[in-house]
Amino acid sequence: MKTQHFSLLFILVAWSFLGSGCFEIVEDITVHNNGSGEFYYTANLSQSKANLDLIMQDDSSEGYRVPSRQEIDADIVRTKATLEKQPGITNVVTTTDWPNYIFSVKFSFASMSQLNAAVESVSAEFAADHKSIPEASGNFAFAGKVFTRKSNYNAEKEKEKLTAKDKDILRNATYTCIYRFDQPVKISNNAKSKISASGKSVMTRFNMLNLATGIEKIAHTITLK
User: Fold this and answer.
1) Which residues on neighbouring strands pair with residue 16, listed in sequence order?
2) In 10 A of CB 208, how many CB atoms?
3) 3-state SS, one letter per residue, for 111-167
């Protein structure tokens, strides 16, 4: 299963063997007025814990190779090392909660361009040809009072490649975007977005199968007051 535009980092590569079950990916970004901020990416598979406990005992599951715990831990270390080499990226922290199957990576970025470069560097590190895939390029922008979450994913082209098992994996999965700002939000142009009571953050939750097939769009334009 190709992980498309929503798997910016290591974790979905490791978990493509999941099969049916529920999980959530959270993309949580704080953007300060000067364009710096914090990026926090979490994969929460705790709802599939019982299923995963069984799957992890085998080498494969329903045609999918099951990576070992050691391989997944190594990928997480590799992700951290890749990020720490990137200009403008600091405070890189990875967290693994194996009992509950919750994994995260967090770091600070000095500018939006450096955030984009960091995401692209991890994409390239795990790509077979060590080249960044188009879906991972230039996803974030911030100019004046406008924050943009872009999407380079071509649903019409890519959805035909999804197998029945891919669809089963994504059907009960969600992708949640949370964007936080120093000043209040005026409007978000994504109809699924909800502005917090404080007015300084926007949350949008997507079904991952809908994202993969183009029914829902991850792209946002958020304008601040």
Assistant:
1) none
2) 24
3) CHHHHHHHHHHHHHHHCCCCCCCHHHCCCEEEECCEEEECCCCCHHHHHHHCCHHHH
Question: 110-138: buried (b, 16+ CB within 10 Å) or exposed (e) per residue?
Answer: eebbbbbbbbbbbbbbbeeeeebbebbbe
Dihedral-angle region of residue 76 (phi above 0 means left; psi in -120 to 50 means alpha; beta otherwise): alpha
Contact between residue 113 and residue 138 where contact means Cβ atoms under 8 Å apart: no
How do the domains of the chain map onto residue ranges?
A: 4-224
Residue 125 makes CB contacts below 8 A (sequence gap 6+) with: 78, 79, 82
Distances (CA, A) of 134 to 8, 104, 139, 175: 11, 23, 10, 19
> Tens of pLDDT along 117-169?
999 898 888 776 666 666 677 899 999 899 999 987 777 777 777 878 778 77
Q: What is the DSSP letter of 216?
A: S
Fill in the amino acid letter for 67: P
Residue type at 176? T
Single pTM value for the model: 0.87
**Six-digit token string for 123:** 């994409």
Q: What is the CA angle 40-41-43, rounded to 5?
A: 145
